[in-house]
Amino acid sequence: MPIYSYRGMDRSGKEIKNTVNVESIAAAKQKIKSMGIMLIDIREQKAQGTSGGSSLLQLRGSVNVEDLAMMTRQLATLIKAKIQIVEALAALVDQVDNATLRLVLADLRQKVNEGASLAKALQDHPKVFNSVYVNMVEAGEASGTLEIVLLRLADFTEAQVKLKNKIKGAMTYPVIMAVFGFAMMNVIFIFVIPKMAKIFTSTKRELPFITKVCIWISEFLQNYWWLMIAAIIGGAFLLNKYLNTNKGRAQWHSLQLKLPVLGMLIKMINVSRFCSTLGTLMNSGVPILTALNIVKNLIPNVHMKDAVEKARISVSEGASITNPLIQSGYFPALVTHMIRLGERSGELEPMLKIISENYEDQVESKISGLTSILEPIMMICLGVAVGFIVFAVVIPMMDLNKIS
């Protein structure tokens, strides 16, 4: 069923922009008219295929993870209620608020109605549905447990959103403090210090070293601010270019893992993602080799990604998954020990779930601890900067009082 986007005016003269999901343009016009809207413009929204077989949506916008998780749970509920996939997708088109997701669902409904599997239809929208999503749906369709797989997908997606939001929330306060402190220091050095410097230099007395440094910084910011901006932009460009090389990326990721507090947090997040994704995929019926290949592509750190690739090669040769993980040194001993026990007992999926849940709790605890550490550090840094300026100004003022 096509989607028509329209523009019109209601009875009060307010402009209305929305979409309707009906059989034809005539039905769309009739439905819009029945809502008391005077139609100005109407057109059909379509998904155009690219040469690579994927879809390029004409409608601008993106699908956030929260909308995707909600849609997945609703689809699972409808399928569990014995509603056909085509009808379930048609129902979701009218329910979702995100315009881009609505267009994607309409395209999925059309492809499934034409005989394609849901997994095959999902592959045409890689920017919305990643490899984990597609492979789990494919395994669910093959095993006849699509509604169960979709519920697991919803849980998995919501857990990822929860972790992402906690990291963002933990970093919000330090970032605000840093931006505010940087802006405040620039205002002081550019507008306040020059006026004080004129008073100090008019006395023709030798100024303290700390005051000279303060005045020098102020003059530099006033006269060479463009040089500082150019240096920041140039440095960021060169750093980004270096980090895009294999050597630069490897060195940067190695440094990340060695950082005092952040290194452990990054390692724990990657371990949690590895265990939760692998466990979810295997529990949904995805073969372990395919699952390991998917998980490898979801881990951002190149060193831990290389360890997972070696584990995949080890499994393909009939060996254990744990040996390459142990040799890498990036996976804690408790994690590899529990994975080994899971392999030997044939209960690898439940063991991976236990590990991921345990590490999610540890990550939350670490993030809270990191926030409690960053806040006093930011306050101390601001205090030191303000103290530097205060001493640079107060010492000459005391000399002026002595002269008076």
TrEMBL record:
> TM spans, by residue?
172-193, 224-243, 377-398
Q: Where in the cell is it found?
A: Cell inner membrane
Per the record, membrane topology reads:
Multi-pass membrane protein
Q: Does the keyword Cell membrane apply?
A: yes
Instruction: Tell me which residues make up the Type II secretion system protein GspF domain.
Output: 72-194, 274-396
Give the matching InterPro entries. Answer: GspF/PilC, T2SS_GspF, T2SS_GspF_dom, T2SS_GspF_sf
Query: Listed GO cellular component terms?
Result: plasma membrane; type II protein secretion system complex
Which GO BP terms apply?
A: protein secretion by the type II secretion system
Keyword flag Protein biosynthesis: no
This protein's UniProt keywords: Cell inner membrane, Cell membrane, Membrane, Transmembrane, Transmembrane helix
State the family named in the UniProt similarity comment for this chain: Belongs to the GSP F family.
UniProt name for this protein: Type II secretion system inner membrane protein GspF
Taxonomic source organism: Peredibacter starrii
Upper lineage is: Bacteria, Pseudomonadati, Bdellovibrionota, Bacteriovoracia, Bacteriovoracales
